[in-house]
Amino acid sequence: MGLTRTEIFSTEQNQLATLLKALAHPARIAILQRILASNTCICGDLVEELGLAQATISQHLKELKTAGIIQGTIEGVSVCY
């Protein structure tokens, strides 16, 4: 398999591909639905609600944050999304 030649595509095409890649996992969709329903969330809350491991939730949150879909704010020892 060759490398993706992102330079031959427009900035908009590359940004859209990044966004859609971040949304392409069912756990991330579930996380976004929980965040939207509660208007805020803490990783530990998602672990309890979704039944996934804390490390798994954290990785999915990182992917969503990297894609610019969510933002996190530090509140004490927790990060709120």
What report would you give on this structure?
With 81 residues, this protein is mostly helical. 58% of the residues lie in helices and 7% in strands. It has 4 helices and 2 strands. The protein has a two-stranded antiparallel sheet with strand order 1-2. A hairpin with a 2-residue loop joins strand 1 and strand 2. Helix 3 (43-50) crosses helix 4. The longest helix is centred in the N-terminal third of the chain and has 13 residues, at 11-23. The termini are far apart. The model has no long low-confidence stretch (mean pLDDT 86).
What's the short story on this structure?
58% of the residues lie in helices and 7% in strands. It is mainly alpha-helical and 81 residues long.
Low-confidence blocks of residues: none
Shape: elongated
Number of strands: 2
Structural class, judged by helices and strands? mainly alpha
Strand order of the largest sheet: 1-2
Quote the beta fraction: 5-15%
Helix content: 55-70%
For the largest beta-sheet, the strand count, sense and barrel status come to: 2 strands, antiparallel
Per DSSP, the total helix count is 4
End-to-end span in angstroms? Answer: 36 Å
Quaternary structure annotation:
single chain
Mean pLDDT across all amino acids: 86
Radius of gyration in whole Å, from Cα? 15 Å
Q: What are the secondary-structure elements, in order, as H or E?
A: HHHHEE
Task: Explain the layout of strands and helices.
Blueprint: H1 11-23, H2 26-38, H3 43-50, H4 54-66, E1 73-75, E2 78-80
Antiparallel strand pairs: 1-2
Helix pairs in contact: 3-4
